[in-house]
């Protein structure tokens, strides 16, 4: 059993990971400023896992708060989700992104260093690969950032690599997520976008719920089988399990390791729409629209390093993710709000 600090624990991926950690018997302290989430998510996490966690409201950039937390708890490691994540907003507000994502991580690393806690699982993203030269994408593919959000992830990875080189007792796993979708099968926790969703899956859910009239499919002239964009969608419950494995790995190894978390399978926009329709019985009206600026044709993972190093592979289907995402949407039409 271990005690873990989970930053951004109330968020979409953080809440599902908190369930997995609690169910594995670990103690969880969540630190979240609720900038993009609700403390209600953490109430539901405790209900699902039938175990308590400690919820702290605060900012990872608050050095005094971190010093206090690290003196109150003997953490065995940190899982660091807290970040801003909207690509378009990062182009419009780069300083906020560098400040929160890079500055926040530096603040956390200083606190960890001072407390002698040197085990970290970091939320990176497949966005660091930009437009790939080859598919599937391995961890050796070049890093190519195309927007400030992606740049913050690449910068933090560089910081972590340098830190592990300078101080060999550190143990850092940077998980490069592909496209997480779905929700916990209980329907109690899920993704709760506050504005019009940028991402495909929550948009589809809102069309199914009647909150949006139809989906715009951005481009049907991509060099893919059906002309629509192809991504590697993985169930958020699988992704959460990957964090548990990454923490176990970090207990046994030192140094920096970047690892893809994806299914290894590319799915087009239309295939995801049809899978959703088949899994839920809901019809998703759509129309084709112009390509979205900055988009790429196709992106999917080579997940073999995750299997080799972590013993992890995605287990759940996109149909399962669609059914679970739809259950969350139906049971919580306004997310965590009343
Ligand atoms: P999310 O917005 O739901 O979760 C992030 C959480 O961090 C939120 O609860 C937010 O309130 C909190 N937070 C933000 N800044 C904070 C700060 N300074 N101090 C304390 N808390 C803060 O997003 P998510 O989808 O759960 O993403 C989690 C992580 O995974 C992020 O680092 C994100 O960049 C990364 N990621 C997400 C995706 C995706 O498609 N969802 C893909 C790749 C990587
Ligand atoms: N799409 C539509 N209509 C929509 C939304 C999306 O057709 O309303 C298409 C996109 O053009 C793309 C696919 O659906 O082909 C997936 O788009 P998402 O926005 O859901 O996902 P992206 O792969 O573009 O980006 C996401 C996150 C990034 C992250 C990246 C890689 O938004 O932050 O995955 O992990 F970096």
Q: Can you walk me through this structure?
A:
- This protein is of the alpha/beta class and 338 residues long.
- It has a domain at 3-182 and 232-262: NAD(P)-binding Rossmann-like Domain (Rossmann fold, 3-Layer(aba) Sandwich), CATH 3.40.50.
- It is 41% helix and 17% strand.
- The strands form 4 sheets. It has a 7-stranded parallel beta sheet with strand order 3-2-1-4-5-6-11, sandwiched between helices.
- Strand 2 (27-32), helix 2 and strand 3 (54-57) form a beta-alpha-beta unit.
- Helix 1 runs parallel beside helix 2 and helix 1 (12-23) crosses helix 8 (236-252).
- 47% of the residues are buried.
- It binds nicotinamide-adenine-dinucleotide (NAD) and uridine-5'-diphosphate-4-deoxy-4-fluoro-alpha-D-galactose.
């Amino acid at each position: 059993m271990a005690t873990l600090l989970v930053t951004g624990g109330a968020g979409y991926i953080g809440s599902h990971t908190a369930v997995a950690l609690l169910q594995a018997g670990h103690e969880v302290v969540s630190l979240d400023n609720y900038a993009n989430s609700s403390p209600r998510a953490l109430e539901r996490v405790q209900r699902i896992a039938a175990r308590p966690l400690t919820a702290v409201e605060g900012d990872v950039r608050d050095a005094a708060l971190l010093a206090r937390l690290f003196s109150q708890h003997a953490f065995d490691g940190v899982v660091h989700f807290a970040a801003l994540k909207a690509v378009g907003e990062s182009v419009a507000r780069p300083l906020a992104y560098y400040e929160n994502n890079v500055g926040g991580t530096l603040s956390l690393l200083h606190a960890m260093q001072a407390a002698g806690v040197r085990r970290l699982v970091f939320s990176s993203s497949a966005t660091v690969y930009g437009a790939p030269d080859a598919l599937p994408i391995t961890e050796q593919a070049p890093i190519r950032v195309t927007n400030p959000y992606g740049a913050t992830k690449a910068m933090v990875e560089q910081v972590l690599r340098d830190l592990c080189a300078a101080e060999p007792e550190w143990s850092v796993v940077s998980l490069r997520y592909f496209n997480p979708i779905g929700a916990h099968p209980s329907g109690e926790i899920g993704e709760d976008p506050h504005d019009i969703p940028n991402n495909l899956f929550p948009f589809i859910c809102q069309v199914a719920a009647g909150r949006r009239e139809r989906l715009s499919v951005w481009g049907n002239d991509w060099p893919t089988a059906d002309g629509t964009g192809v991504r590697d969608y993985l169930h958020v419950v699988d992704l959460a399990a990957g964090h548990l494995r990454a923490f176990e790995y970090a207990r046994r190894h030192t140094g920096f390791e970047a690892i893809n978390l994806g299914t290894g399978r590319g799915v087009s926009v239309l295939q995801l729409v049809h899978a959703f329709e088949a899994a839920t019985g809901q019809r998703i009206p759509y129309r084709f629209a112009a390509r979205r600026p900055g988009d790429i044709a196709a992106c999917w993972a080579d997940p073999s390093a995750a299997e080799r190093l972590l013993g992890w592979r995605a287990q759940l289907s996109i149909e399962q993710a669609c059914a679970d995402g739809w259950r969350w949407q139906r049971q919580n039409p306004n997310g965590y709000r009343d």
